[in-house]
Design brief:
The structure is a single chain. This protein has 469 residues and is α/β, with parallel strands linked by helices. Helix content is 51%, strand content 11%. It is built from 22 helices and 11 strands. The strands form 2 sheets. Strands 4-5-6-7-8-9-10-11 form an 8-stranded parallel beta barrel, surrounded by 6 helices. α8 (138-152) packs parallel to α10 and α10 runs parallel beside α12. It is globular. The two termini are 32 Å apart.
Length: 469
């Protein structure tokens, strides 16, 4: 695993890159890929933790454009999903993985697992809410993921996704323009960082008091359409951002065929009125899960039954009637291991996985006990208002410890290499298992067939000229 190197000035970076990289127009050439890839961790680390903002900016640009020169390119999964909607590929479920902590190391581990099994489509995602409590804005997250790809030896498209760009129902009701502007701003920031996959979630404003399903989904469809048009106006030339919609808020009542048709007929009608804008390529539904699972008093997770019949039915309808890849399942990482193969068997398009990987970091025997205690003590103090009267301490810690990754980000990144190696070994075995269950091994040919990532040059910072002249 990787250890930190903090650059004192840009001169140190210049000496490391001598004979390795050079400026070319607005981009970067890499003459020694092996050497550049070995610098990935240090560049990512300094892009986050260096106190010099110029060094941060330079390192972020070097990872983005150096990665591009090495064939590591942010990409949209849209064309693969539309091909699935046409029936040109099937039989697998794309894993979408949220990384809350140790983002570089976990990303590198995912790419290593994918390379072993010739896995094609894997999505790296972070939700709007996660950006807040993990202290990872889009540019930081994308840099860490691209750096992990470089370090692993991977070349090809990298699917980075904004998960649950969710409309806060309470804020929308009190000040709709302010809430929608915040999401528009996040979309712009994300696309600029290389997020070419964005899931819009305005299912929070579905109005169940309305008499028909189409009327219930009216505001959801209108906002999803509005954000679709906004994204199409901001995406780079040559990129069709993959956009997802959502009809059922995770943790609420299960979605139905009528919910899906009510939303899509409404949404497509707005698309037709608005012109020839390309629509969404997948739809998130609710089939019985909750984000993070439901902790029992002893801290273990309650067994949840996914309505796979409904998931299969909605996926088929999404493909056959609306030309999308199918349905998306959220909140699945804590399901029993024998459930995962069913997603691919039932032709689920995508499954979102997050909490179990967080748990595997915290609960690994190699994770330092003193750091764990320090994090939990912080949560006891800072998240005290979130503790419910009927919660045990174990339930409280389980539900809140995701909020320890931001305040203790540097401490976890600075863990000794042998500790991170032990944590990532367990994670790699888990990824190996999940990829097999989701039937994505040997799908790399599909990404090569349907995905043609482009280079999207990012303006070089002034310091790049100084370092690479």
């Amino acid at each position: 695993m990787n250890s930190a190197t903090v650059y004192k000035n840009v001169g140190e970076i210049k000496s490391l890159l001598k004979g390795v990289t050079a400026l070319k127009d607005s981009g970067l050439t890499v003459s020694n890929q092996d050497k550049f890839r070995k610098l990935a961790y240090a560049l990512v680390y300094n892009s986050i933790f260096n106190s010099d903002k110029d060094i941060q900016e330079l390192c972020r640009w070097l990872v983005r454009m150096g990665g591009d020169a090495c064939g590591v390119k942010p990409a949209s999964i849209h064309d693969l999903y539309i091909a699935r909607g046409r029936g040109e590929c099937r039989g697998f479920t794309v894993p979408a993985i949220n990384i809350r902590g140790l983002t570089f190391d976990v990303s590198e581990t995912i790419f290593k697992s994918a390379l072993k099994s010739k896995v094609g489509p894997v999505i790296f995602e972070i939700a709007r809410s996660e950006m807040g409590y993990t202290f990872q804005r889009p540019a930081e997250y994308a840099t860490a993921v691209l750096g992990g790809a470089l370090a692993s030896g991977y070349s090809g498209p990298v699917f980075i996704q904004g998960d649950h760009y969710q409309v806060n129902a309470k804020k929308y009701k009190s000040s709709p323009d302010t809430e929608l502007d915040a999401i528009r701003s996040l979309i712009e920031e994300s696309i600029s960082a290389g997020f070419y996959n964005i899931d819009i979630d305005s299912s929070t404003v579905v109005d169940l008091s309305k008499p028909t399903k189409e009327a219930q989904q009216e505001i959801n469809a209108a906002l999803t359409h509005e954000f679709t048009a906004f994204i199409r106006g901001k995406e780079p030339k040559g990129v069709t951002v993959s956009i997802g919609g959502e009809i059922g808020e995770v943790g609420t009542e299960n979605s139905t065929v009528e919910d899906l048709t009510g939303f899509m007929d409404n949404y497509n009608g707005k698309l037709q009125k608005g012109g020839s804008v390309q629509g969404i390529s997948k739809i998130s539904v609710q089939t019985g899960t909750t984000h993070g699972g439901i902790p029992l008093p002893d801290g273990t997770i309650a067994k949840v039954k996914v309505d796979f019949d409904t998931l299969e039915k909605l996926s088929k309808l999404a493909r056959d009637k609306y030309g999308m890849a199918g349905a998306v399942q959220h909140g699945a990482s804590t399901l029993p291991e024998d459930a995962f193969h069913i997603f691919a068997d039932r032709e689920t398009a995508e499954v979102h996985l997050a909490t179990e990987f967080q748990n595997m970091i915290y609960d690994n025997s190699a994770f330092p006990e003193d750091l764990r205690r320090e994090i939990y003590a912080y949560l006891d103090k800072e998240c005290a208002a979130e503790k419910k009267a009927d919660q045990t301490q174990e339930q409280f810690v389980y539900k809140t410890r995701k909020k320890g990754f931001g305040p203790f980000k540097k401490q976890t990144w600075d863990l000794p290499s042998d500790i991170k190696r032990q944590i990532c070994a367990k994670l790699e075995a888990k990824f190996d298992f999940l990829f097999k269950q989701l039937s994505v091994p040997n799908t790399d040919g599909l990404t090569k067939k349907f995905i043609k990532p482009i280079s999207a040059p990012a303006p070089a910072p002034k310091s790049a000229i100084q370092v690479l002249e």
